[in-house]
TrEMBL record:
Species for this entry: Treponema succinifaciens (strain ATCC 33096 / DSM 2489 / 6091)
The enzyme's E.C. designation: 5.99.1.3
GO term, biological process aspect, one: DNA topological change
Cited PANTHER family: DNA GYRASE SUBUNIT A, CHLOROPLASTIC_MITOCHONDRIAL (PTHR43493:SF5), DNA GYRASE/TOPOISOMERASE SUBUNIT A (PTHR43493)
UniProt xrefs under SUPFAM superfamilies: Type II DNA topoisomerase
Protein name as it appears in the record: DNA topoisomerase (ATP-hydrolyzing)
Catalysed reaction equations from the record: ATP-dependent breakage, passage and rejoining of double-stranded DNA
Keyword Cell membrane: no
Pfam families: DNA_topoisoIV
Keywords, comma-separated and alphabetical: DNA-binding, Isomerase, Topoisomerase
Amino acid sequence: MAFIKNLFDKNFIEYASYVIRDRAIPDLEDGLKPVQRRIMHTLFNIDDGRMHKVASVVGDCMKFHPHGDASIGAALVVLANKEIFIQRQGNFGNLYTGDTASASRYIECCVHPLAKKFLYNPNITEYVPSYDGRSKEPVAFRAKIPVVLLGGAEGIAVGMSTKILPYNIKEVLDAEIKALRGEPFEIYPDSPTGGLMDVSNYNDGNGKIITRAKFDLSDEKKIVITELPLETTSKDLLDSIDAAYKAGKIKISSVEDFTTDHCNIEIKLPRGVYSKDVEKALYAYTSCEKSIACQMLVIKDNMPVAMTATEIIKYYAKKLTGIIKDELEFERGSLTEELHQRTLERIFIEERIYKSIEQMKTAESVNKAVKDGFVPFKDELIRDVTDEDVEKLLKIPIRRISLFDINKNRDQVKAINERLKEIARRLKHLTDCAVEYLDGILDELKKFSALDPKQDHTAISPALLERQTKITSFSAVDVKQIVQRDTPLRYDEKGYLGTSVNGGREILKVTPFDRILIVRKSGLWSVCDVPDKLFVDSGIWFCNYADKDIISKILFTIIYRDPKTKYCFIKRCRISGWIMNRDYNFVPDGMEVLHVDTRAKFKFSLNYTKKPRVKITVQEFKAQDFEEKGLKTNGIRLESKEVDSIKVEDSGLQTKLDL
């Protein structure tokens, strides 16, 4: 058993780690989940400036992603609809209507130039073997901007989940620039579908937001929905409106959906109903208002970490300077090597070192002759001559040697030296370089947004550069406050109480959110939610809304009799609290309740058992003559006489339901 337990523990931990790190939670380094990273890696590999069938891209991506084509295709469509990662051609679905994309064999895509600019830098990216060992894939791209905020993310792993809302790219880049300069900034989510958003409880990415649709109420007989809430489509909205209408929660005449590349849902109202009457009901009962809980959980240094949007922006600002430094140092190394090769080539040809190898018989002697030929020029060299350098020099064709242009070589060397000086300068001003880079990205965005999407597939929507969702402040609509008490609560002769009881007597008008207090014929009382159909008793004394402020003010008078002695007692008390769906008793066990009343003052008469020495057979009492006691105390005995019956003065008591 111990072996099996250890085996299960080990396998579960491995499974949980895999799901968390390699499936559901995005990596902070590039903001992508593994399937998204592999899609982008595939597009970078096959990029030739032309469109590729999505089905072909999916097939190529399966060389890196071992989980089937469906997940790849779906993730590719989501990435493509972000516009800044993938160029699209064909039907990739509609964010407003919720229509899905065409089959992958009918649509085409290729990598967007912007994605290559902020994601692709293979010279400083770490690669590992793919799952079958035939290829290499990146551990994570060295992203220069907070991709995890631009695209948003949602995933459920083992014991944890993430929910990151999308942000506006221009606002993210502006915030990153401010972070580089040490300036304060605030940033909030944005949705391409627009709508309204209350971020008072957002907590920088780890709280919740309330999002609403935007209404046009200019016509009091019509409501036009012009913008959608976050993560909602027109189809979702129509379904929720239809459900609310069928449930009788909203009053509408008809709904027409004219949504295309923007939301346009027209709701017509029936006679006597106006837009101001329906507005709150739409927010309360339909998807026109949603509350979304958020948690920014990401993989950082191979561990799941909860971060805030501000922390992510600052992390990327610091990371950007590091990436630029790595790129500059790599370029400096490459240019230094190229300068070395240019110098070797010039000396090798200009000083005719190649002549010294004409009489050599072996490869070793040739190698030595070339190296010896460079000894007099050692001070001009950047580093020592290696065997690899000799091999490259020996591969120079005779035609190139004979046509060697010394002036061209010197110009190339001069250009390299100037660039090396520029790199040295930029390495001393990395923050300025980072700001310059981000400004360049903003300029690129403006350029792509100005293009015609019908003529150029690199065009992006101008809406990406402007905030679409309006930040405002509002309170979520409380359904309990706007619901109307129009559902009848009935009680029939069989003892059933509820909203689904047919026939019987209507007691109250209720809502589904009401609670009711019931006093049964036996003296038992309880509080419960409004029932559909509940057997309570063959008779009840009292039934009303269980509002503590109201109930605590009601003075209950209970007159009961001991079946053994037939003595009568009176008890006056109030109900101040209760536990839901629990039975309580006004009177001690075994007692017989004769009457329950809620009037502060009333008269009642007791009819005593007729006996030879009993002269008074009827005696009248006033309820107000007896003091109020605690709910758990016993009643006060009225007289030491046996009681046959009771007669109560009737003054139109509305809460007595002796059916």
